[in-house]
Design a protein that fits this description.
By secondary structure, the chain is α/β, with parallel strands linked by helices. It has two domains: 139 residues, Ribonuclease H-like superfamily/Ribonuclease H (Nucleotidyltransferase, domain 5); 178 residues, Rossmann fold (3-Layer(aba) Sandwich). It contains ten helices and eleven strands.
Amino acid sequence: MAGEQPLRIYTDGACSGNPGPGGWAWASSREHFGSGGEAATTNNKMELTAVLRAIEDNPGRPLTLVMDSTYVKDGLQKWSVNWIRNGWRTKAGEPVKNREIWEPLVAARDARRDELTFEWVKGHSGDRMNDLVDELAVVERDRFRQAVGPTPGAPGGGGKISDLPIEEQRAEKRRRDGRIPAGHLLLVLGLSPDALGGWEANPVADDVRRRLQEWIDAQAQLHPDLVVLTGLRPGAEVLAAEAAIRADVPYAVVLAFPGMEAKQAPATQARFRDLVGRASSVANFHKKVPTDRAGFAANLKQRERWLVDAADQAVLVWDEQDARLDATFSTLEKAFGDDLLVIRP
């Protein structure tokens, strides 16, 4: 009907691992919504499915689709034009990821081009409807995660690892330590939010996240089993997880101790918990919370050393001025040599 007010529909996706159990949801209100999921999927597939189902499930009227995924919005409004022109290949000549969902989504968009508009909203920013679709997607993700069941841990072994040849020691560590995920592990460490433009969204952090995503994309071409390894400390480690999601690459989280987000601001806690929920695996390096500052520092140092030993390559987000990272740089350079990339904000 001409002049009809568009129906505002929010969409979101959630996934525990890439691939892993996932859920999608759309909603215009608590009474009008749709949701579902899959046992083995990715976060980006769930984000795409949410938008596709919102369009399919709400025919015959104008829609404003509101999402917190720049991947989906930019794909619909920018990238898809060149993808189609290039035979569903990227600028680099690679096949477009998730084409099996992108193609029907683009067709649905084109069939209702005059009825659809797209908006972006920052996730976990206090938007009531964005929070609602996130909750609905997480419920579906958890439903499928319960159906799949826990992942078996790695088997143990006997003898001293140091007795093995150097080239075999890392593989043996992984066999014995169930906290070390399978795959080619890319560790990301680096600056805190104060050195990355602040705790709120800002151009410096956005640029670092973009460059991390580009590097993760490139490494995933070389290592199909790539997994990003992060401790989710605010700053570079959180940006690494978000970059992995955008690159559609799984990331594993190794927390220093349970509840390490407890003293963070509410918005930072929400961001942290969302990223924990999307991880392919989550482990606590220590089971007990440190009781003082010295214990906190020692815990983080031990966790960092463990991460370095577990990883195959590393990225350090560092301006070469923050002296707190001098020792970290030296450790990473010694451990990885040419397999260490330094990203300077």
